[in-house]
Structures are given as structure tokens and as C-alpha cells.
From TrEMBL:
This is Stage V sporulation protein R. Residues 13-353, 449-547 form the SpoVR protein-like N-terminal domain. It comes from Halomicrobium zhouii. Residues 549-601 form the SpoVR-like C-terminal domain. It comes from the Archaea. Pfam families: SpoVR (PF04293), SpoVR_C (PF24755). PANTHER family: STAGE V SPORULATION PROTEIN R.
Length: 664
């Protein structure tokens, strides 16, 4: 970096010192508990490089990083894309700010990052990799190790890159619901890797059919197969394909046309990439929750608490609108909407519980006798909470919502209370100041509560205390209950369980979600449902197992021939056969012997499609079992009896992805 660049970066850093410090303070006032965050000022090219590297400064040498860098750079040059922030899961966390961005954007990034750091620190899925991650150092060590292998004169660099390609093709085939552990001695029976059928041995000897007939009878050859005594492992289907290949896999020797032991460097690289797959798994599993969490608290800090100055707010609003308005399945938008819905529903339940204890109000007459305008008026924050700078002398110093020490500091002029009014409030005060149900966009939320929910609340209310009036009941409302519940949820859930538990028909209707499908009868995509169960299923299919097919190892000695049998856990979505074939070729390189894959496919009869088209309905496909096999030369696809794949077809999809020990 030139002297001029260093001076410019230093000026940018000095300008951001106060926002960084105050954003961390505000985050803690709001109840967040983030990792400490180290902020780094980088230029445009450095930011693109960091994005390409997944948020880290050092990674192993590979062409994928260059491709990602080129794509990121072209997106900025030709598509108007703009890099705002990148932060990694580490303790302390490291966040990178692009020096050319406006101060409004930098503040938005900083508040966003503080919420991410809170999520990293408290979500238990991240804790499954390591309670105190030192990811930067780990990834740097990995990079050094692989770089040394590539520079070793006895190892072909191209072979190392090719080996990395094979492993990366399978990087999501791990058991993300278990903590990472290095591969040790497997709890499976040892097999003789040189074991082969007699028939295979004769094939290797190139014995002619004529000699076979003269020396061996067919009955004797069949007897030697001894299928009933074949060795089968693992005992249960294994989800961690990379661990299985690390333990039992071999490399294919093209010259000798046989499987041979992996080289030490191959074993080491495979385990390195497996470890990285486990490190990045929680980020893939919580994309919606994490980005929604960060967007929720960023908007709270920047917009509602005025962290964006008056001259910065319009630019910030434009920035947020672009982030939330981007097309496709937008994790920022979906996550923010879901977290807001959780906050509102928890707050609404709290209000309903209070009102149902008012004399004369029951779940049956709730909608008829409750004056919801009166409810809104009683829930509104007290005037001094809404206008702190203008009512310092009216703020009660002994109120639990007030930080007495900071109130005195504000009166003495020790800090700018106009810019940082939140400093005089405690967590309870901020929760009431930002109570969701009194915001204009949610003012009808309480009145929309359904009879079924009211009956359920009433049924499980064990507190028999009663109130004489609505005002008396609402005076006891816990304004922090929504935020408290949100923090509980962010500790234990991932995207799949989050969607499963909180996506309701009310949410779907409020936010205009629907499903669409490709229809065989029309040859195009059509809206098919607005039912929340269909929307939930469609969304969750995109997040279960990172949105990838769930593949397990069923047999490492398939048909007693040392072949690998993989199975596709069919959930109604068929495999892309071309991608499946390409992947089998990659697996072959890590197994060294033929590889099989059992799956279920959907087949449409052309006549049924034509009849359905005339009758304006969808044809019913036939589900058939198929086995793909790659032997090192070609992929073959064979239809198999339904009995071979019946166990792969699920009547329903199991979305319960919490580890068993969490459910005990």
C-alpha cells in the first residue's frame, strides 16, 4: 500500500471510530451479546478479493477464487452491484469496510455487523464447530499446507488441483447436524480391500470363456459368490460421505487400472476440505435467520434510533430498499419479515393474555367487547420515552426504564443526547420505546387475532389474577417479551426449524407468498397455491441439506464386489440426472472402484400428458426406481424393482433437524 493510500485509509478509520464504538454500545443496550468485532478498512480490489475468499484474507490456492473474484468485479462494473460489508464467524469477528463507501453506508454496515456477531456468538449451530473459533488462523494454516503440497517437486500441482475439484464437488455431503470431529478409527467392520469375487479375478486374468468352461463349472462359480455371507457396511446409512471416503476410499490408478491407496497428501487435503465444510455449514444452515436478524437490528438502530443522521437517512433508506428489493429468494427480506412476525405474535399473545384476565372479557366475546383503539392508546410509550432530548427534566430518575447515571450525564452535557438518546434508557426502556404493536404498519395486528388462538391462550392461562379494567391490565404488559423470545429462538434454530415453526397462514397472507410449479399440461410455470403448508414445504425444500439432494452411503461392499452404493433420500424432488452422472464420476476418483446410486424418478406417459392437457389438469407421474452406475468408463442407468428403492421414498419430509441430544 502506498503512502497516499495509507493516509486515506487512516482518515477513513478515524472517521469511523465513533460510529464503531457507539454501534457496539447501542447493540448491548438492545440486548445483543456480540463477539468483539475488529473492523478493517479496505479498497475496492481488496473487498472483491475478500468476497471471493469467503470473507478471509488467506485461503488455499485454487482456480475457484479467481473465478469468484472475476464475477464479483464484473458485477460491480457492469451490473451496478455494490459491496457493502463482509464479516466472518470468528472470535473476535473480523469485518471489512470498503473505504469508498459513504458514511451512511458504513454506519449501516457496522450496525448490521454487530447483529451478525451476536448471532455467531449465540446460535448453537455455530457452537457445534467450536465454542471459540479461530477460523482465520485455521484457514491460513490450511492454505499453507496445500500450497506446500503444490510446491513439492514430487507432487504434480495439477493433480492437487484436480483432487481439490473432486472433493469440492462433494463438500455439502457431510452430516451438518453433528459437531465436527476429525476422522478416527471407524466403528465398522474391517474389510479386505483386495477381496474380489472369483468371477472378477478370472476377468482380471483375461481367462477366456472356453477355458472357464473347461476348468470351472457354472454351479461352482455361483457357489463362490456366497452372497448370503457378503460383508456389508456401514451398519446404518452414513450421511458424512466425505468421512466415509476419507476412511475407506482409494484412488484410481489409470495405468494399473485398479484402486490403490491414497497418497498421504490426498488424505490430508480431503480432511482439510472436510473440516472447512463443517466450519461453513452453520452459515449455510442459517442464512435466512442470520441475514434477517442483522437486517432487523440494523433497521432498529439506523432508522428508529436515528443512528443514521438527518443528512444520511435518505441514502440509508435507498440502500436498505435495494437490499430488500433484490429478486429471487431473498434471505434478507424473508428473514426480516419472519423476525418481525415473531416479535408481533409474541407481543400480541402477551397483550391477549392480559386482556383475557379483564372482568367481562372472554375468548368468545373478545372481538366484540374490546375497544382496540383504547388498547393502542394504552400501549403507546409515555411521551417522555418518545421525545427524550426534549423532556430530560421530566424523566423519572428512579424508573427501571432509565439509566440514572447516564441521565445525569445527559443533563450535564457530557454527551450529545440529541444524537444518542438511547444512552439514558435501559433495555426495558428501549423495548417500550420501540414496542412493535403501536407502529402504524402493525396497528391492526392485535384485532386480527383469531378465535382459535384466543381459545388456546385462554386454555393454558394458569394465572388467575384478574383486572378491573383494560388500562389496569395493559399497565402490566411486558414490553420486552417479544425481544426476549427472539433471542431464545436465535440460540437454537436453523432456517429449516425456523420456517417450520413460525411460517403461518397469517404470515403468508400478510406478505403475499405463494408457490408456483412447472405444469406438464401447459408447458410453463403457474401459481399453484397460497396455502401456508405448500409455501412452507416449498421453502423448506430449498434449505433442507443446504437445498441439495440428501445422499447417504448405504453399502461399501455392494453385491460383495467392493463397489460403493449411495442412496438418494427421495422427498418428491427428482435428481438432475446429468449432474448426478457428473458427480458419480467425481466420487469414483475418491473411491477407486465402481460407484452406484439408487434413486427414484418420475416418469410421465405421453398419452396421459396429452389427455391432461385437453382436460386442463396435471397428469399423474409414475415413480420408478433407478440405479446409476459408473465403472470408470461410462455411466449406465438401469430401472430397478420398486422393492430396492421403496425405503428411500418418504411419506412426508422430516424437517426436524435438531441433534438428538438437543431434544432430550
Amino acid at each position: 500500500m502506498s503512502r497516499k493510500d495509507r493516509i486515506r485509509a487512516q482518515r477513513a478509520a478515524e472517521q469511523l471510530e465513533e460510529p464503531v464504538e457507539e454501534a457496539a454500545n447501542l447493540a448491548k443496550h438492545l440486548g445483543l451479546e456480540p463477539y468483539p468485532v475488529n473492523y478493517w478498512i479496505v479498497d475496492y480490489d481488496e473487498m472483491n478479493e475478500l468476497i471471493a475468499y469467503g470473507g478471509f484474507q488467506q485461503r488455499y490456492p485454487h482456480w475457484r477464487w479467481g473465478m469468484a473474484y472475476d464475477r464479483q468485479q464484473k458485477q460491480g462494473q457492469f451490473l451496478g452491484g455494490k459491496a457493502f460489508e463482509i464479516v466472518n464467524n470468528d472470535n473476535p469477528a473480523h469485518a471489512f469496510l470498503q473505504e469508498s463507501n459513504d458514511l451512511a453506508d458504513q454506519k449501516a454496515v457496522i450496525t448490521h455487523v454487530e447483529a451478525h456477531a451476536d448471532f455467531f456468538s449465540n446460535n448453537e449451530w455455530f457452537g457445534m464447530f467450536a465454542d471459540n473459533p479461530d477460523a482465520s488462523a485455521m484457514l491460513a494454516r490450511h492454505g499453507d499446507t496445500i500450497r506446500e503440497y503444490m510446491q513439492d517437486p514430487e507432487i504434480d500441482r495439477a493433480e492437487v488441483e484436480k483432487w481439490i475439484d473432486h472433493v469440492l464437488c462433494l463438500e455439502d455431503n457431510i452430516d451438518q447436524h453433528r459437531p465436527y470431529a476429525p476422522v478416527g478409527d471407524p466403528d465398522v467392520p474391517e474389510i479386505d480391500e483386495d477381496f474380489e469375487d472369483v468371477a472378477d479375478q478370472l476377468e482380471d486374468l483375461n481367462v477366456s470363456d472356453e477355458v472357464k468352461k473347461q476348468v470351472f463349472s457354472q454351479e461352482w462359480l455361483d457357489a463362490q459368490s456366497a452372497d448370503d455371507d457378503s460383508i456389508t457396511f456401514p451398519a446404518e446409512p452414513e450421511k458424512d460421505l466425505l468421512a466415509f471416503l476419507r476412511t475407506h476410499g482409494m484412488q484410481y490408478d489409470e495405468d494399473g487400472e485398479k484402486a490403490v491407496e491414497m497418497e498421504d497428501w490426498q488424505v490430508d487435503v480431503l480432511e482439510i476440505l472436510r473440516r472447512e465444510a463443517y466450519y461453513f455449514a452453520p452459515q449455510k444452515m442459517t442464512k435466512v435467520m442470520n441475514e434477517g436478524w442483522a437486517s432487523f437490528w440494523e433497521s432498529k438502530m439506523m432508522g428508529e434510533e436515528g443512528f443514521a443522521g438527518d443528512d444520511e437517512f435518505v441514502l440509508y433508506a435507498d440502500h436498505m430498499a435495494k437490499v430488500l428489493g433484490s429478486g429471487g429468494l431473498n434471505p434478507y427480506k424473508l428473514g426480516l419479515e419472519l423476525w418481525s412476525y415473531v416479535e408481533n405474535t409474541v407481543n400480541r399473545r402477551e397483550v391477549a393474555e392480559r386482556l383475557l384476565r379483564v372482568e367481562g372479557i372472554t375468548w368468545r366475546n373478545f372481538q366484540d367487547v374490546v375497544d382496540f383503539r383504547e388498547v393502542q392508546d394504552n400501549l403507546a410509550p409515555e411521551p417522555w420515552l418518545q421525545d427524550i432530548p426534549g423532556s430530560l427534566d421530566e424523566i423519572p430518575a428512579d424508573d427501571p426504564r432509565v439509566d440514572t447515571e447516564m441521565l445525569e450525564a445527559a443533563k450535564s452535557g457530557d454527551f450529545d443526547v440529541e444524537r444518542y438518546p438511547w444512552k439514558v434508557l435501559t433495555y426495558e426502556g428501549l423495548a417500550e420505546r420501540h414496542y412493535s404493536l403501536v407502529k402504524p404498519q402493525y396497528r391492526g395486528f392485535v384485532s386480527r387475532i383469531g378465535q382459535e388462538d384466543l381459545e388456546r391462550i385462554s386454555r393454558y392461562m394458569f394465572d388467575d389474577s384478574r383486572y378491573e379494567s383494560v388500562a389496569e391490565a395493559l399497565a402490566d404488559v411486558d414490553y420486552a417479551r417479544g425481544w426476549d423470545r427472539m433471542r431464545e429462538i436465535r440460540e437454537s434454530h436453523n432456517d429449516v426449524t425456523f420456517l417450520d415453526e413460525f411460517l403461518s397462514q397469517e404470515f403468508v397472507d400478510d406478505n403475499d407468498y405463494f408457490t408456483y410449479e412447472y405444469t406438464q399440461s401447459t408447458g410453463d410455470y403457474r401459481v399453484t397455491s397460497t396455502d401456508y403448508r405448500d409455501v412452507k414445504k416449498k421453502l423448506m425444500l430449498q434449505f433442507t441439506n443446504f437445498g441439495k439432494p440428501t445422499i447417504t452411503v448405504e453399502d461399501g461392499n455392494y453385491q460383495n464386489r467392493n463397489e460403493l452404493l449411495l442412496t438418494h433420500q427421495f422427498n418428491g424432488v427428482v435428481l438432475d440426472m446429468e449432474q448426478a452422472k457428473d458427480t458419480l464420476e467425481r466420487v469414483f476418483e475418491l473411491w477407486g472402484r465402481p460407484v452406484n446410486l439408487l434413486t427414484i424418478d418420475k416418469v410421465f406417459d405421453e398419452h396421459d400428458v396429452e389427455v391432461a392437457r385437453r382436460r386442463d389438469r396435471e397428469p399423474e407421474p409414475e415413480e420408478v426406481g433407478k440405479r446409476l452406475r459408473y465403472d470408470g468408463e461410462e455411466v449406465t442407468v438401469q430401472e430397478v424393482d420398486w422393492a430396492e428403492v421403496e425405503h428411500l421414498a418418504a411419506d412426508d419430509i422430516d424437517y426436524d433437524t435438531k441433534p438428538e441430544e438437543w431434544l432430550a
